[in-house]
Specification:
Largest sheet: 2 strands, antiparallel
Strand order of the largest sheet: 1-2
Radius of gyration: 31 Å
Number of helices: 5
Strand content: under 5%
Helix content: 55-70%
């Protein structure tokens, strides 16, 4: 599924970019469109430098404090991806690039990235031989199969009858009250 989406993106996005460039060029003129693209790239480069430094500083602080830098790594990846989109000529890629870089829209992009990667990791883990361990079940091994049936992993333990002799008295099973002298029927 992801391969099909990527193929369509590489096919459709360039065509859309060219169409938008032509439409804007017809409205404001060719040279003005080129100037707008150059201005947009310069602002993007300045913003990538600024936000890249901030992300790097936050990453170093998290590592120095001994904290796992999950948010900082995601921010760094988003800044790199946004910078790549800003270098690509076109207005649609620039809009997406600014969305990934700007500090007030990056948390939304980070949340979306976390959702997407979480879904991918769960799908890959459930397809692996250890999928039962990662199926999102409750502690103790309870899980649900894709068809909705609840599966509880466990181990079958068979209890073998012990021979009883008169000296040992009645056999008590775990969970029964202590022997009070009353004769109990065998189970």
């Amino acid at each position: 599924m992801l391969r099909v989406v990527l193929f369509l993106m590489f096919l459709v996005v360039p065509v859309l970019e060219i169409w938008v460039l032509i439409q804007i060029g017809q409205v404001i003129g060719g040279w003005q469109t080129v100037g707008l693209l150059i201005l947009d790239s310069l602002i993007g480069a300045w913003l990538v430098r600024r936000e890249g430094r901030r992300a790097w500083r936050a990453l170093r602080q998290a590592l120095e404090s001994g904290r796992m830098p999950e948010r900082e790594l995601a921010d760094g990846a988003l800044v790199v991806a946004g910078g790549t989109l800003l270098v690509t000529p076109g207005f649609l890629s620039d809009v997406l690039g600014f969305f990934l870089i700007l500090p007030f829209t990056r948390p939304l992009a980070r949340r979306g990235l976390g959702w997407f990667l979480g879904r991918r990791v769960r799908a890959m883990a459930s397809a692996s031989p250890f999928g039962v361990m990662f199926s999102g079940g409750a502690p103790g091994g309870s899980a649900r199969r894709p068809d909705g049936v609840r599966v509880v992993s466990g181990q079958v333990v068979e209890e073998h009858e012990r021979p009883r002799d008169a000296a040992s008295g009645p056999r008590l099973t775990p969970g029964t009250p202590a022997d009070d002298g009353a004769e109990r029927p065998p189970r």
